[in-house]
Amino acid sequence: MHDADSIVVERQDFAGLFEILRSLGYAVVGPTVKDQAIVYDQLSQVDDLPIGWTDEQEAGHYRLRRRNDAALFGYAVGPHSWKKFLHPPRLRLFQAERSEDGAMVFKQEPVEAPKYAFLGVRSCEAHAIAIQDRVFLEGAVADPTYRERRIGALLIAVNCGFPSSTCFCHSMKTGPGISQNTKVDIELTELLDDEGHRFVFQARSQKGQTIVDRLPARRTTRGDLDAAEALVAEATETMTRELNAEGVRDLLYANLEHPRWDEVADRCLTCANCTMVCPTCFCTTVEDVTDITGDHAERWRRWDSCFTLDFSHMPGGSSRQTSKSRYRQWLTHKLATWHDQFGTSGCVGCGRCISWCPVGIDLTEEIQVMGQSTQGVPSS
Amino acid sequence: MSETGQSKPKLAVWKFASCDGCQLSLLDCEDEFLAVSEVIEIAHFSEATRRSVPGPYDLSLVEGSITTPADAERIQRVRAESRYLVTIGACATSGGIQALRNSRDVGEMASVVYASPEYLDVLETSTPIASHVSVDFELRGCPVNKHQLLEVILAFLHRRKPNIATHSVCLECKARDSVCVMTAKGIPCLGPVTQAGCGAICPAYNRGCYGCFGPMESPNCAALSAQWKAMGVSDVDIVRAYRSFNGYAEAFRVESERHESI
């Protein structure tokens, strides 16, 4: 949250942020209304933001709704996440040519790294990016595309004032407010009250400081800081869903044969939507393509999912034939084995997998049911 | 060298009971098709040329379903003359829209449609090619996607596995940034139970998926139907949705019958 170093930018001066970002060579991407949802896309001006819009979310349900004010950030997260910019859905990895003497010549793909400014990153999303940082950058081999895009990216985070009913970041300790140790470049809070429509800005990195310093601003008052704090406190209060983050890893390990997995399998479509919208799911597959002559080949990487049969295809076929085994793989990786593999949970409580599941499967409900009828004694 | 001893592999395209749309997808490849014809001999393709070279053939693409006794015999000859046989489209892989008759009395339907039904010599059912002969690869779609068709031909040519995904349409929707029409707009969509391949066209234009590519690898139609019913879709409309181009494909057929009996 903000401290005394923060500044206040009035609504009419907010456009200045876009000018500063453009002058520094950033491509601004952020929330905008498209296709009856708030998605992440290129933004060229303040008016591209979802002004006066909010969302209504439930399991398997998302609807845009009008707000009765002109807030710029008065909604929760939508179907997109920032991973589509840092970890593109389709990417050519290399090309190969057959030379005249018949030898294969490999051509390394240049890493394309647009310089992005992410405007409107929520606390849960900043945590999701930190999780993908561990996956892509902190292992034995760093992913070059992710690395270049991540280094260039500027994270302008917004304290979340309007979580949806599918959100449970508070119980995952990833939001709704941006904590001091969350890695972002700028933290802002939108305030809309009797004191006017304004934004509390605070630089959280050197990169962020150079931008904040150029904004037309006044110093914050005690009233501004109290209002910002109250907004996050209220957001926390409104969150209805929760997940017991502390005990979930051991609970899952103790219940790998729980009958609830069969019940979920009856409802699960294995359509992979949950993994596509998840801001931390990172799995991919590669495809080799050839041209007509056969002298030119390319290898492409594309998002894949543990819900597809091909994903676990080994000699003899897919090792996860049933939807039960695939759902269990996803949930236990996300909430249990992720801890063992990467040292944190793979879930940030953003609720996307709940809202965007076509049949509304809710992982918080599944965990709750399993907790109430645990088959083994969770031990750590 | 081809399997048949010719310098270029020989391609044949065959038509059974169908609308010709999948063959048109091959012609629609245009520039690529010309390039293909430089490395593959188009030995038999009535939609494109009157010239027909006798078999055997290295690769046969078969469009259409088996609906007559004569075709049931003809497909045996095509199989015998073909090193590889690939079916293209919903008719050839699941019986097509004409398989609607499989749950009705053909004689009764013919008497309503035709002035002199006694001249007809048809089978009781419309069935996929694989019900009659062994098939090396089935390419889905109504019609097939031309890029996928080209991919199958190139994979055959270069002796590699074709990159044809069997997962749901949803992955294609997400890859092209479409917003889910079911969750955000309340539009019933068959995408979660339908195989990818079209590029998720309909949801990108605010329509639910029609299931043109048939059931995906692990379809849970019952769960999707339950959600449709919760959205207010009637059993009659659920039957209609499943009973279209791929209505005779096992998963869709079973689901439509389940709702017909309710």
Outline the structure in words.
- The complex is a heterodimer of chains A (380) and B (262).
- Chain A has two domains: 7-91 and 110-238, no CATH class; 248-290 and 303-372, no CATH class.
- Helices cover 31% and strands 24% of the residues of chain A.
- Chain A has 380 residues and is an alpha+beta fold.
- In chain A, the strands form four sheets. An eight-stranded mixed sheet of chain A has the order 3-2-8-9-10-11-1-12, with helices on both faces. A four-stranded antiparallel sheet of chain A has the order 7-6-14-13, with no helix packed on it.
- Chain A is globular.
- By secondary structure, chain B is of the alpha/beta class.
- In chain B, strands 2-1-3-4-5 form a five-stranded parallel sheet.
- Chain B has two domains: 10-157, Rossmann fold (3-Layer(aba) Sandwich); 170-260, no CATH class.
- The interface between A and B is large, with 48 and 41 residues.
List keywords for this structure.
heterodimer; A: alpha+beta; eight-stranded mixed β-sheet; four-stranded antiparallel β-sheet; B: 262 residues; alpha/beta; Rossmann fold; five-stranded parallel β-sheet; 12 helices; 5 strands; globular
Characterize the overall form of chain A. Answer: globular
Q: Helix segment count of chain A?
A: 13
Instruction: Characterize the biggest β-sheet of chain A.
Output: 8 strands, mixed
Number of strands of chain B: 5
- Secondary-structure element pattern of chain B, one letter each: EHHEEHEHHEHHHHHHH
Helix content of chain A: 25-40%
**Average of pLDDT of chain A:** 96
Rg estimate of chain A, integer Å: 22 Å
The largest sheet of chain B is: 5 strands, parallel
The poorly predicted ranges of chain A are none
- Give the termini distance of chain B in whole angstroms: 58 Å
| Global mean pLDDT of chain B | 95
